[in-house]
Design a protein that fits this description.
This protein has 330 residues and is α/β, with parallel strands linked by helices. Helices cover 47% and strands 12% of the residues. It has two domains: 227 residues, Spore Coat Polysaccharide Biosynthesis Protein SpsA, Chain A (Alpha-Beta Complex), CATH 3.90.550.10; 69 residues. The radius of gyration is 27 Å and the shape is globular. Bound molecules: uridine-5'-diphosphate and magnesium ion.
């Protein structure tokens, strides 16, 4: 199986038949492509499940709809689809006709050129400026700066991934938009591709401005996981050492003041606060040590390596016997 197309669906009943038609057309235009199509209904309360049932029955084999028991959120729906996908390449796409299936052939071409991730970029985004485009620009800039992976459009769902780069990445919260940053951290080769974007014709968007806050919090988690998940003692311990140094400077200042001007050390408010800072510093180092133990449990219990191999190159030549002790042999 070459391609798995994964599509999260939440209350998109009017869009589904049109979308399905467009997808079959786009996939049919690639000769010899073995594909599967996975819709994940995320607990829709409209007619979407019934529409999906009809579409699946009338479709070629390898069209699947997974109906989740309730609304778990777009990220969870995507995770369910990825767990069921068997293709070498996984493409994610929205169900609301804002992404265009006609971009899929081009994405597959880029994957065949050797890229591991093809990141769709809605160059001409068709959404409200103040509530959607502007927050999204700020978020993209922030995510790019913090993760060091510079993409124009983290929020665009339409992206293609070679399956290996997704392995081992569990999706929580609203984290599907951080998959490219994660993929980069395991050494994926990435490219951006401008894709079409259409205004929403049927149904409503499921998100508002509150998503920005969730994205910010997820960004902190992702940054920590990518940069420090193998060495948590560095940020915690680093902070601990800084706190202890601050507290020692304060104490030294109090001591010098006592010696020069006979001002009491213990009566100064700096005395108790410096002790507090010192305790915080030691706590922080201890927290780092506990996190270090957790990291070991995490990797060793799941036999998860701390590295990823792209390819193994091996000589096919027969090995010549190596003379280890040339001097001793006649
Ligand atoms: N979606 C979902 N579960 C949710 C919210 C959204 O599966 O709880 C799906 C939705 O049906 C659509 C995609 O995720 O296919 C993106 O949603 P939406 O178009 O509302 O987001 P926007 O494009 O406005 O960012
Ligand atoms: Mg949309």
């Amino acid at each position: 199986m070459k391609l798995s197309l994964v599509i999260p669906v939440y209350n998109e009943s009017e869009n589904l038949p049109i979308l399905h038609e467009q997808i079959l057309q786009a996939l049919g235009s690639i000769p010899g492509l073995a594909w599967e199509l996975i819709y994940v209904d995320d607990g829709s309360t409209d007619q979407s499940p019934a529409v999906l049932e009809k579409l699946v029955q009338a479709s070629p084999a390898h069209t699947v709809a997974l109906l989740l028991r309730r609304n778990f959120g777009q990220t969870a729906a995507i995770a369910a689809g990825i767990d069921h996908a068997r293709g070498e390449v996984i493409i994610l796409m929205d169900a609301d006709l804002q992404n265009d299936p006609a971009d899929i052939p081009h994405m597959l071409e880029m994957i065949d050129q050797g890229y591991d991730v093809v990141s769709g970029w809605r160059e001409n985004r068709q959404d409200a400026f103040i509530t959607r485009v502007l927050p999204s620009r700020i978020a993209n800039w922030l995510i790019s700066t913090v993760t060091g992976v510079h993409l124009h459009d983290y929020g665009c769902t339409l992206k293609a991934y070679r399956r290996e780069v997704l392995a081992g990445f569990r999706l929580y919260g609203e984290m599907h938009r951080f998959i490219p940053a994660y993929a980069h951290s395991v050494g994926a080769r990435m490219v951006e591709l401008p894709v079409r974007h259409h205004p929403r014709r049927y149904g409503k968007t499921k998100y508002g401005l509150t998503r920005t806050i969730k994205v910010l919090l997820d960004l902190i988690t992702v940054k920590f996981l990518i940069s420090y998940s193998n060495k948590p003692i560095y940020p915690f311990g680093g902070m601990g050492i800084v706190l202890i140094l601050i507290s020692m400077c304060l104490l030294l200042f109090l001591l010098v003041r006592r010696l020069l001007f006979q001002i009491s050390v213990t009566e100064s408010p700096f005395f108790s606060s410096s002790l507090m800072v010192m305790i915080l510093g030691f706590q922080s180092i201890l927290l780092g040590l506990i996190a270090e133990m957790q990291v070991r449990t995490y990797h060793e219990s799941q036999k998860k390596p701390t590295y990823t191999i792209r390819k193994r190159l091996e000589s096919t030549q027969e090995a010549d016997p190596v003379d280890v002790y040339p001097d001793r042999n006649p």
